[in-house]
Design goal:
The chain has about 600 residues and is α/β, with parallel strands linked by helices. The protein contains 20 helices and 20 strands.
Length: about 600
């Protein structure tokens, strides 16, 4: 029987084009209306080294990368060895490998592939013969995969044409020959892989984008017209995207000398009346701590996208981890309020970014979007119609307020009208010093107390207006999962499988971390018998943060581990089943 859900993985060295191959298959699947998730992994080197790409294509809705691989393509066994433990083929996987690789199969250890179909393929020879260069072996492989597994062939061909269409005619022609050669070779193999053929009905085309691209598109949609940033993995794609598209939208972009100056420039642009943004990762956010305090004190809107990676220090620059929560929530000297949002998938990156601009403009505070590499660099299909979000602009003072303008006037929400430099009657002094309502520097305890209360009052407004969270599963459950960020995908799929098995499990996933949606979480805790936290950081940062806000049940369990390996559906199910078994055994003893 054909399958409606197929996971493929390709492994090779830098320059082998495995990521490009996955990219073109993802585009082909999206064009035919399939649901697609593509993830890639590579070492921390600038060029060369090993790389892998895993692509899941499904006729059904999906929210996580495939735990186990149906089809594995290996250009070099030495490169595959570097991904052991990350790439796990199924017992009956189909494995295509370079026939010219001298590594004896007896030395290739894949314990999970107990009943696999092993197919030697002369990728290099086929590519050289068809195109004159071994560099086209990824295109040859595309043809083989399309033919063997019913991946949308015409759409793959169009993806090849799109990729090479702007190059010289000879380049496109050679690659199309390579694609045809791969299809022809696949027809000569004579192997039965029918159980892996993808079965689906062609549907409406979908967009396919990464979380970083979704954030960049959302920034344009929200009205961002100034971006300052410094390239850092895994957030650099935002800088690259906006460097092309922001000037076309009438905006400006600058690459600064470091992250500290990037946020300084953003604060300056925002002070001048333009919606402004920067993007970074953990080390860069550390450098921005001082400027976060300035934005908070001077009450200037600023949006900071932080795409988390493994840390501390340089850490794992190309791998995902959820370990910047403490830095995002607390990272500044003094009492410096800020907003922290946590998008859960690629589409949510769009909505979270527009929310970030809206909240920043409404509250005149810095807003941090706490994404991670697993979301930021994953490619996922998105329904075009879903990329719609209300945009809110800054409230500037009216004529009555300008008649006796007080930049930091006390208001019920804590937000005061912010004039744009050059506004008649709206001039004021601003810097990082404490100040009174008229913006004049003031160092008295009474003024500091009053203005601190004013700044923190904004968090109450945000908590009331933006109680952002996701509740998955039944309204009442035996066990409740608390997770955040990219963990939502595998948890969502695990809950469906657990429900099928008759287990009562739900999940609470905050999309805003600071201020936390307290009312909703209190109601959630009351709806479950047992609570567990799942976190991809060693210290259990969300759990410890929430202990400062809530009286969590004494029996709460915490499963926290380092990043470098994304949370899987199997891992979630294993944790849940273990806790439910333990609770059940304890209840039996008590009875």
């Amino acid at each position: 029987m054909p399958t409606r859900d197929l996971t493929l993985a390709m492994v090779g060295s830098g320059g082998d084009g495995v990521v490009t191959m996955g990219e073109m298959m993802a585009q082909a699947g999206a064009r035919d209306g399939l649901n697609v998730i593509k993830v890639e992994a590579y070492g921390p080197q600038i060029r060369g080294g090993e790389s892998s790409c895993t692509l899941r294509m499904s006729a059904e809705p999906i929210s996580a990368q495939g735990d186990a691989i149906d089809v594995l393509v290996v250009f070099n066994w030495a490169d595959f060895n570097r991904f052991k433990g990350e790439l796990v083929p199924k017992a009956d996987a189909v494995i295509l490998y370079e026939a010219a690789d001298a590594t004896p199969l007896a030395d290739v250890s894949i314990p999970t592939a107990t009943n696999a179909t092993w197919i030697p393929v002369p990728f290099i020879e086929l590519a050289t013969k068809a195109t004159g260069t071994k560099a086209a072996k990824n295109i040859v492989t595309l043809g083989i995969l399309a033919e063997l597994f019913a991946i949308p062939q015409e759409s793959v061909r169009k993806a090849v044409e799109f990729k090479f269409g702007k190059k010289k005619a000879g380049v496109l022609e050679a690659n199309l020959k390579g694609f045809a050669a791969g299809r022809e070779f696949a027809g000569t193999l004579g192997v039965d892989v029918s159980a892996r053929k993808l079965e689906y009905t062609v549907g409406e085309p979908k967009l396919v984008m990464t979380g970083n691209e979704a954030c960049a598109v959302a920034a344009l949609h929200a009205g961002c017209r100034f971006f300052a940033g410094y390239p850092i993995t895994p957030s650099s794609e935002v800088l690259h995207f906006l460097s092309e598209w922001l000037p076309r939208s009438g905006g400006r972009i600058i690459q600064t000398e470091d992250e500290l100056s990037a946020l300084g420039a953003v604060i300056g642009g925002s002070f001048a009346g333009v919606k402004s943004m920067t993007s970074t990762s953990g080390p860069g956010l550390s450098l921005m701590s001082e400027m976060l305090g300035l934005a908070s004190m001077a009450e200037i809107p600023a949006v900071i996208l932080n795409v988390q990676r493994g840390g501390p220090s340089t850490g794992l620059p190309t791998k995902s981890e959820q370990s910047d929560l403490n830095l995002a929530v607390y990272g500044s000297h003094g009492d410096a309020p800020r907003i922290v949002l946590a998008p859960t998938d690629v589409e949510d990156c769009f909505h979270a970014t527009v929310d970030a601009f809206n909240i920043a403009e409404e509250t005149q505070l810095p807003v941090i979007i706490l994404s991670d590499q697993a979301v930021g660099q994953s490619r996922q299909t998105v329904e075009r119609a879903n990329l719609v979000h209300e945009v809110i602009d800054r409230r500037t003072p009216n004529e009555e307020e300008l008649a006796s303008y007080k930049r930091y006037a006390e208001t019920p929400s804590g937000v005061s009208p912010m004039s744009i430099p050059g506004t008649k009657g709206g001039m004021y002094q601003t810097n990082g010093l404490e100040h009174d309502e008229t913006a004049r520097p003031a160092s008295s305890h009474a003024v500091h107390e009053k203005m601190s209360r004013k700044r923190f009052k904004k968090l109450e407004f945000v908590e009331e207006k933006y109680p952002l969270f996701v509740h998955l599963g039944p309204e009442k459950a035996d066990l409740g999962i608390v997770c955040w960020g990219s963990s939502k995908g595998p948890v969502e799929e695990a809950l469906k499988e657990l429900a099928t098995a008759g287990l009562s499990v739900s999940a609470f996933i905050p999309r805003i971390i600071m201020p936390f949606p307290k009312k909703a979480f209190l109601e959630y805790m009351a709806s479950v018998k047992t609570l567990i936290f799942l976190e991809v950081n060693f210290a259990g940062q969300l759990y410890h943060y929430l202990r400062t806000i809530f009286d969590l049940p004494a029996a709460t369990r915490v499963f926290a581990r380092t990043g470098g390996l994304n949370l899987s559906v199997t891992e979630v199910k294993s944790r849940v089943e273990s806790v439910l078994s333990e609770v059940g055994a304890r209840e039996e003893v008590t009875a």
